[in-house]
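Tip: read the tokens left to right.
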């Protein structure tokens, strides 16, 4: 059931929403939450099995969804995915551009970071956001005419809270700048663009990495709430930004980080 006092968010029921990186973690939680709110959801994901898993979870709860397999760093695949969404549903109202990669093991300080790692981070996290927004916004303009775009940012794009994450932090800083200029560019056309900034979130992969209680404690020691977020907690903020309850918000950033960036 929808949260927010048990009442559904306004303006989501019947809308068509595309979510990139919806095969697991935050993206999957967002896709499921939008389906619970009454959206018809397009699951954009580069791993076919992961997309199928999200699809099954949504349909098992009575929701409506389709999958479109695409690597967000490859424009032809992204365009084809949005073409499929429009061909199936007839329009697009909402884009949640979430897909991205993070690797604490391969990322690093600027003087030792391999360019190949930098290129991978930029391709997925920044170019992928650009391509999803390029073709997603074009689809919204050509069909629904107006709508909402939500990007997944990061505290690392604002503050140096994750040392030795040069590629990831730089890519997310670029995402924040991309969101601001898009918000201004499309405000007059009825397309809102906002950013949800998740803190340390317990996606399935992260849960594996912090399975040792000592590792978990080290990761949350600087978070005032002393815990990681559940993906559903991030999904609620993303769904709010996509809804009519956020109708006067564009170019805004909602931080969902347990107080990390308040310190």
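Filled-in amino acids:
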């Amino acid at each position: 059931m929808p949260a927010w006092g048990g009442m559904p968010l306004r303006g989501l029921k019947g809308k068509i929403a595309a979510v990139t990186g919806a095969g697991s973690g935050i993206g999957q939680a967002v896709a499921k939450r939008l389906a619970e709110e009454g959206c018809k959801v397009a699951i954009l994901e580069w791993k076919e099995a992961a997309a199928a898993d999200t699809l099954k979870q949504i349909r098992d709860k009575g929701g409506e969804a389709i999958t479109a397999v695409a690597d967000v760093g490859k424009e032809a695949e992204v365009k084809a995915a949005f073409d499929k969404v429009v061909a199936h549903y007839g329009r697009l109202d909402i884009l949640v551009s979430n897909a991205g990669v993070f690797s604490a093991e391969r990322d690093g300080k600027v003087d030792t970071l391999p360019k190949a790692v930098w290129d991978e981070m930029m391709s997925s996290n920044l170019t992928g956001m650009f391509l999803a927004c390029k073709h997603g916004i074009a689809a919204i303009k050509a069909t629904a005419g107006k709508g909402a775009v939500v990007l997944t940012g990061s505290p690392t794009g604002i503050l140096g809270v994750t040392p030795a994450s040069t590629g990831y932090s730089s890519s997310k800083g670029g995402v924040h700048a991309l969101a601001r200029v898009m918000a201004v560019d499309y405000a007059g056309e009825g397309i809102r663009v906002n950013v949800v900034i998740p803190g340390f979130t317990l996606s399935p992969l992260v849960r594996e990495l912090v399975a040792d209680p000592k590792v978990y404690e080290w990761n949350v020691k600087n978070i005032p709430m002393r815990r990681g977020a559940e993906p559903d907690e991030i999904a609620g903020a993303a769904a709010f930004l996509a809804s009519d309850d956020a109708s006067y918000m564009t170019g805004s950033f909602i931080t969902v980080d347990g107080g990390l960036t308040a310190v």
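Helices lie at 25-36, 48-60, 75-89, 115-142, 166-186, 204-209, 213-220, 231-242. The two ends are 33 Å apart (CA to CA).
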